[in-house]
Amino acid sequence: MKSGWSLICLLASFMRELVLSNLEVARIVLSPRLRIRPGLIAYRTELRTDLAIATLANIITLTPGTLTLEVSEDRTVLFIHALDIEDPEVVADSIRGSFEKRLQELEECWSR
Fold first, then answer.
1. Using CA atoms, how far apart are residues 35 and 5, in angstroms rounded to an integer?
2. Model-level pTM greater than 0.85?
């Protein structure tokens, strides 16, 4: 039952971020001045299973304005490009607090 709830929470977090990201990208595109700070971040993940890491990488890529470029060979770091990065830690905290937390809960259920 916990895995079902975790999956629902993950989907809800993704839908929320999807809407917010679409609005932000639309604001950037429609703005008369292009004031973006694109950049790359190395995001350290605590996820361990290939399924959870692949799911996180795909969720990041599906969210407008972000793209997972690569996963390190040891599967602990995701290299992410973002359209507008004011503070890399804010981006990392957002991923950690919304997506990774839910995926960790699912990982626990999958390993049982």
1. 39
2. yes
The one-letter code for the residue type at 112 is R
CA-based torsion, 41, 18, 101, 10: positive or negative: negative
Considering only CA atoms, which of 40, 28, 33 is closest in space to residue 68? 40
pLDDT 10s digits, 76-109: 999 999 998 989 999 999 999 889 999 998 888 7
Helix axes 2-30, 101-110, angle to 10 degrees: 150
Listing DSSP states for 19-79 in one string gives HHHHHHHHHHHHSSS-----EEEEEE----SHHHHHHHHHHHHHSTTEEEEEE-TTS-EEE
CA gyration radius for the chain?
Answer: 15
